[in-house]
Amino acid sequence: MALTSRQSPPKNTRYFSRDESWLDFNRRVLEEAEKDSNPLLERVKFLAITASNLDEFFEIRVAGILQRIEDGYNEPGPDLLTPQQTLDRLAKETHAFVSDQYTCWNRQLLPALAHAGIRMRAWKDLTDEQREYAIRFYQSEVDPLLTPITIDPAHPFPRVLNKALCLALLLHRKRKTAASPVLGVVTVPRALPRLVSLPATNGHTDYIFLHDLIESQAAAMFRGHEILSRAAFRVTRNSNLYLQEEETRSLLESVRTELHNRRKGDAVRLEIESDAAPEIVERLRANFELDDFQVFYTDGPVNLSRLMNLYTKSARPELQYPPFVARGLRLHRESANLFDEIRRGDILLHHPYDSYDTVVEFIRAAAEDPAVLSIKQTLYRTSANSPIFQALREAAQSKEVTVVVELMARFDEASNIRWARDLEDAGVQVFHGIVGLKTHCKLALLVRRDPENGAVRQYAHLGTGNYNAETALFYTDLSLLTANPILTSAVHSVFNYLTAHAESDEYHPLLVAPLNLAEGFAQHIHREAQHAAEGRPAHIIAKMNSLLDQSIIDALYAASQSGVQIDLIVRGICALRPCVKGLSENIRVRSIVGRFLEHSRIFYFQNGGDEEIFSGSADWMPRNLFERCEVVFPVLDPQLRQRIRDEILAAYLADNAQARFLLPSGEYVHASQQPGKTQPAFQAQEFLIRLAEGKVTSQEIPAPQEVISPTKPIGKKAAIALADRRKPAKNTLLNEAERKDAFSGKQSQNAEA
Q1: Pair 301, 209: CB distance under 8 Å
Q2: Cα(727)–Cα(682) distance, integer angstroms
Q3: 155 carries an active-site annotation
Q4: Which among 611, 623, 570, 637 is positioned nearest to 725, based on CA atoms?
Q5: Which DSSP letter does residue 480 get?
Q6: Alpha-carbon distances, residue 489 vs 402, 445, 493, 567, 640 (angstroms)
């Protein structure tokens, strides 16, 4: 697998381009679609994900750059590029990326699907039986939903919705031979599936794309016209959401209004079939007021994200990842319920390897238990049929329930408005957080009166992922369930901050954005630098989705120069430039893209030997540190810290199958391409599945692979140090019962947090 395609960054820049780094991430996803070792339908899914990702990139990032250029901004950013220079580079890279997407589809996936008996059929290739079936489907399900339009002075160009698939037809009026061709437009109904199943032939599973079916019947829609040419197209619009605060309008109403206005966003991209007639392309380009670089020709179906239908509709489990059963929480024999179990000690869950059912049960049990007096929870995104949402509604009938709903969770605003209304109707007190800040923290707090002694105790859930049982099946996240009063009291203060904007100094030991999170991380990084300068053990391991904040990056650069060994596991955007002599030679950056979406945030500080580990909802990005309410919590239980260090982080650092290393040039190189000693393939996610199934132990995790930069080898010292810490000290081996408790995330009764 070759290095990813990347233009060289400007000389002397300390920070990579945010947008080019994001495109690099999407290319790593595309590499998974290209990889023969992945199951075929999973490869189709990865390709669909790249298309969905690219949609959002144009809706938000490219749209934002175009707005800055239009507003006259010309100052270089942290990457030393002006908005226009950034746009020029992105235009080149995005066109190359789209070309690679369709190369993957046409040359790899289509032939492989056909070989597996799954065929995409053109109208001309259908059997008589298939044509008859398709026509009946069209007449009963499709035609009633279509509204063909001919563009003329009496019929202006229709308002094309964002990302709606359409057909453009160049038409000639049969009765007016001298008239110039006119344009016809048909919008493909969103309510219908993009792939139409056809009767099987010779054991094959056949499909036709919906727009191909509509094209085949276009003549009947435009009677009196000769169809000169036709092409499917799709327009992507600016979807940035702007709110104008008004005293006379609630935040909920503001969001609802802006959702309506969003449909009127300017076009930022036109996708159209590559064989489209130039006249069709030019008419569409002019109508949407686009420059040439904003027109993308597709050598295949417009909107590859709809290939996700193929993944979900095909009942071919042998072409997908083998299923696994997540590890369920087993209660201690002396625990009557989940609350008893939490009182015994903090519980750490690593999803999806540990079942998310435990988190759902935490809320459901609170709703049903008469001893629970109140429930408080944040909701950022949730599933359509959320059991948590239902439990909160039911709980409101008998106890105090408070929910902080984030209305501006991008692209989930409409559903969150519905959640908010439904919860209010059920008697839940609904708040929308602090004006100007997204509520992104993942918190739940219960107050329960002990049935035996009458004592009032608080229980909390703190997590890295959304309260969404569906995405929890394929997002990696951490959950902490605790009754530790140090933590629950701090969570209580955070809820007071969210509902009453009541700032206090009582958040310790939590780090809370935008109050003290950035400062807290900076202090911990600086402390590691002091340890290194004074000869004490100093090592930072940080796992996150994105790394963009300049102050954090500068602190990491300074720590590297002080001798701190730094391992960063960054799934997506990384603006930090690693392995640069004199700047970041002790920093290694890995990205892991695989079966599960890496979503957990973990922050490890060796702290001179007195290690600390934090987790939470925040990435190291300005929006997380300063523009959202985020919570990062310490893992206080020593056994749980050991599990995170020796199982979770160790597995990610040892990955040499899915990991890619970031080079100083900005390119990512696959771990298998690193020179030096060849190691047996080790895939972190697959290992963690087998670990959850009890088939392996953490002692089987190899030492981290040494990272080789183009200038010098680095990382060996850190690899040896981490491997040494994973060795059990003499006379400190856990007995079997203690080992099982540590494995399941429990602590003994007498363990002090």
Answers
A1: yes
A2: 19
A3: no
A4: 611
A5: E
A6: 17, 10, 6, 33, 20
Active-site option among 225, 351, 440, 539: 440
pLDDT per residue over 503-534, tens digit each?
Answer: 776 799 999 999 999 999 999 999 999 999 99
| CATH level 2 (architecture), domain 338-500 | 2-Layer Sandwich (3.30)
Tell me the pLDDT tens digit for each residue of 396-452: 999 999 999 876 545 555 666 677 788 888 888 988 878 788 899 999 999 999 888
CATH 3.30.870.10 occupies which residues in the chain?
A: 338-500, 511-743
CA distance 460 to 389: 17
Q: What is the pLDDT of residue 178?
A: 58
CB under 8 Å, gap of 24 or more: what pairs does 150-159 form?
150/182, 150/183, 150/184, 150/222, 150/225, 151/182, 151/183, 151/184, 151/185, 152/182, 157/183, 157/185, 157/287, 158/185, 158/187, 159/263
Mean pLDDT across the chain, nearest whole number? 87
Judged by DSSP in three states, 530 sits in: helix
| Contact indicator for 297, 273 with CB cutoff of 8 Å | yes
The CATH number of 18-319 is which of 3.90.79.10, 2.60.40.420, 3.30.1840.10, 3.40.1710.10? Answer: 3.30.1840.10
- Please tell me whether the overall predicted TM-score, pTM, comes out greater than 0.85 for this model: yes
C-alpha closest to that of 572 among 1, 28, 5: 28
Q: What is the rounded CA–CA span in Å between residue 13 and residue 676?
A: 29
The CATH number given to 511-743 is 3.30.870.10
- Is the CB of residue 23 less than 8 Å from the CB of residue 94? yes
CA-nearest of 167, 165, 120, 173 to 148 is: 167
Residue 751 contacts residue 353 (beta carbons within 8 Å): no
Question: What tokens were used for 286?
Answer: 């002019």
Identify whether the C-beta of residue 329 lies closer than 8 Å to the C-beta of residue 348: no
Amino acid in the structure at residue 441: C
| Nearest by Cα to 400 from 379, 373, 432 | 373
Radius of gyration of the chain (CA): 28
Nearest to 412 by CA among 555, 300, 259, 559: 259
Phi, psi of 726 (to 5 degrees): -80, -10
Burial class (CB in 10 A: 0-12, 13-18, 19+), 504: exposed
